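thoughts on these tokens:
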Amino acid sequence: MLLRTGGDDVSERLLRLLRTTAVATTAAMAAGTVLVLAPPSATAVPDDPTAPGQRSVAELLTDLQRLYREAEEATETYNATEERLRRQRAETDRLEQELARARLSLHDSRGAAGRLARQQYQSSTALSPYVRLLLARDPQHALDQGHVIGRLARERAETVGRLTGDEERTAHLTRAARKALDTQLTLAARHKKDRDGVRGKLQDVEGLLASLSAEQLAALAELEKSGIDRAQKNFMASGALSDTRKPTKGGARAVRYAVRQLGKPYLWGAEGPAAYDCSGLTSEAWADAGTPVPRTSQEQWARLERIPLGQLRPGDLVVYFPEATHVALYLGDGMVVQAPRPGATVKVSPIAANPVLGAVRPDPDGKPLRRYTPPELPEGARDGSDEGFAPTSAQSATERVEGRGRVGTAGSG
């Protein structure tokens, strides 16, 4: 699988920015720095409520989550268009190959028809087969000859029919190939538009992060972490999850694949092996297990079998947000493996790090293993940001960090 590099410039710049600010954030938190929001920059209007220095940490977190969410939605739209474009290219190639074969067959049929016309012209006679039979010295020989003539007539009829059919089929395939190419060109233009949209959203994220001070970034990280811890505690206490279940053979393989990707960077549109986005990780994990699943989180939610959260087993997919714009692979014990967001890496996270929409199972007919030993997690598997892309309406950042976010059930949304 080739790694697409359409977003490398923005994503790598964002990753460098986050690494740089993370060092400053860690130093500030280690020193016990008291949070004082930085004053507005010299170019900002002092009473401008949109200036970073004029907003609370919760408001900044809301803005950052909104930008991340918009980037994720744009990424999944890009992925869906790319998948359609990939299928359309394959269909266009198939039709062109079929058209080439049809044209070759038509050429052969026209050659056969030409030979038939020449033979008819050369053997034409004014006597009918009936008269030739009456005048023949050997009637039996004439009858045998008539049988041959009849067979040749049938072959000629078949040649004409084949020629007519080849002409009609070639004309049909020509129209279909032209239409397929037009569709491919339209999708290619949309693909470029979607790609530019993702780049624009990531630049918005980069711009906001660059405008924040180390103290603000430290406060955001702490607020995010405390909110996730509280949300996870409430989620586990709700009894939504049952006792740990054993995976199927395919589920165990998908889990092992995902664990091997820990620490690799998030990159929009990426399907590995060097980087992943959220649905790129889950689709490749199950492809490695021998069970292909749809490429995008929305299609995974729409087309795979939905299961209650209480029936989750390792390898199942957990889908997040009302629009199903984020997905992770269930690890067990209330934890998932995910590619969270730009600037982050593939990591182990609490299942409630984002608002759960529901869960789906790629292999509903698979039988759980009798024995299962979870893969050993490397050191630092849980390091880094856990949140994917949080909602922006109906649920404020304050509600999220206080752990009061809605937790959906399978089939909701």
Q: What stands out?
A: Residues 18 and 77 are 25 Å apart (CA to CA).
